[in-house]
């Protein structure tokens, strides 16, 4: 099985390839990024690349100075198919994967046929694993997650713990600073955005105690806007997951269920457990389909 990679080309003619061996590859000008591009059009943490079975998930940082372009259209968060090319300023990113389900891998496929013995062993192994994990029918059907997702957020009304207005103002400013930093990282880690909602709510409470009503109102608006955005994102992923199951597209389902799990990591319970089980079932279907090729 080949390793997915990204081929990078700069306007000056430099070209190199990076294997996507991690689920989270950060691209930016910071030395802490896995792919470092010390160029003015790149933020310190500019974009996240996350390989998936049917493509690469791309997430642009909030406030990034240069958009990510795909087929001439700017994207913020999207699963881009393997074989596609992205551009950021003058830098091109070609996404490569020889094992892509769509057959749009990076290199020419070999004509050699797999050994019948190895193919039979692979199919038997998958069938046995399916029987053990999914029951005697081999997991031919995958049910949608039952019930409703848990509430993503606690109530936003908070009480400031400061004893006086001066201390409350200091705490409010710190909560606001931390919230802004977390919100900027939301495209890279959903839980940062979720933490930012609570921090903005804490900031609003302390701004009220500090008698800074305008700043309190603004902080609460930021909390509400971020909360609405994340809840809408969860609903969209749930809708796309159900559509993928109905249309028997397990590779798309794997992407959507993992994104839902990322959004609900802070809410352990029956629903999150059902998503974990569903992710295993869908991933097994993807493996079985690849073994049968």
How does the SSE layout of this entry go?
Elements: E1 5-9, E2 15-19, E3 25-28, E4 35-36, E5 47-52, E6 55-60, E7 68-70, E8 73-75, E9 77-80, E10 85-88, E11 91-96, H1 116-134, H2 165-184, H3 190-209, H4 213-246, H5 250-263, H6 270-291
What labels describe this entry?
6 helices; flat; about 45% helix; six-stranded antiparallel sheet; about 290 residues; five-stranded mixed sheet; alpha+beta
Explain what this protein looks like in three dimensions.
- This protein is of the alpha+beta class and 293 residues long.
- It is built from six helices and eleven strands.
- The protein has helices at 116-134, 165-184, 190-209, 213-246, 250-263, 270-291; strands at 5-9, 15-19, 25-28, 35-36, 47-52, 55-60, 68-70, 73-75, 77-80, 85-88, 91-96.
- The strands form two sheets. A six-stranded antiparallel sheet has the order 2-1-11-10-7-8, with no helix packed on it. Strands 4-3-5-6-9 form a five-stranded mixed sheet.
- A hairpin with a 2-residue loop joins β10 (85-88) and β11 (91-96).
- α2 (165-184) runs antiparallel to α3 (190-209).
- The chain is flat and about 70 Å long.
- It starts with a strand and ends with a helix.
């Amino acid at each position: 099985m080949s390793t997915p990679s990204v081929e990078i080309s700069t306007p000056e003619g430099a070209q190199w390839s990076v294997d996507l061996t991690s689920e989270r590859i950060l691209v930016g000008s910071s030395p802490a990024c896995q792919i470092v591009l010390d160029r003015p059009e790149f933020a310190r943490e500019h974009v996240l690349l996350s390989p998936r079975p049917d493509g690469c998930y791309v997430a642009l940082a909030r406030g990034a100075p240069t958009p990510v372009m795909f087929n001439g259209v700017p994207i913020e968060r999207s699963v881009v198919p393997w074989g596609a090319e992205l551009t950021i300023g003058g830098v091109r990113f070609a996404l490569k994967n020889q094992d892509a389900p769509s057959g749009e891998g990076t290199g020419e496929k070999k004509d050699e046929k797999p050994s019948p013995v190895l193919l039979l062993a692979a199919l038997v192994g998958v069938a046995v694993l399916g029987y053990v994990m999914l029951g005697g029918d081999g997991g031919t059907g995958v049910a949608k997650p039952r019930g409703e997702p848990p509430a993503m957020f606690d109530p936003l009304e908070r009480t400031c713990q400061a004893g006086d207005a001066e201390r409350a103002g200091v705490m409010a400013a710190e909560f606001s600073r931390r919230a802004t930093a977390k919100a900027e990282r939301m495209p890279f880690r959903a839980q940062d955005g979720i933490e930012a909602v609570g921090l903005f709510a804490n900031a609003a409470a302390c701004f009220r105690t500090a008698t800074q009503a305008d700043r309190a109102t603004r902080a609460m608006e930021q909390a509400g806007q971020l909360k609405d955005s994340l809840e809408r994102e969860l609903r969209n992923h749930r809708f796309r997951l159900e559509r993928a199951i109905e249309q028997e597209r397990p590779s798309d389902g794997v992407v959507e269920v993992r994104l839902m799990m990322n959004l609900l990591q802070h809410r352990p319970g029956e629903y999150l457990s059902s998503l974990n089980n569903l992710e295993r079932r869908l991933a097994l279907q993807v493996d079985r389909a690849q073994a049968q090729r």
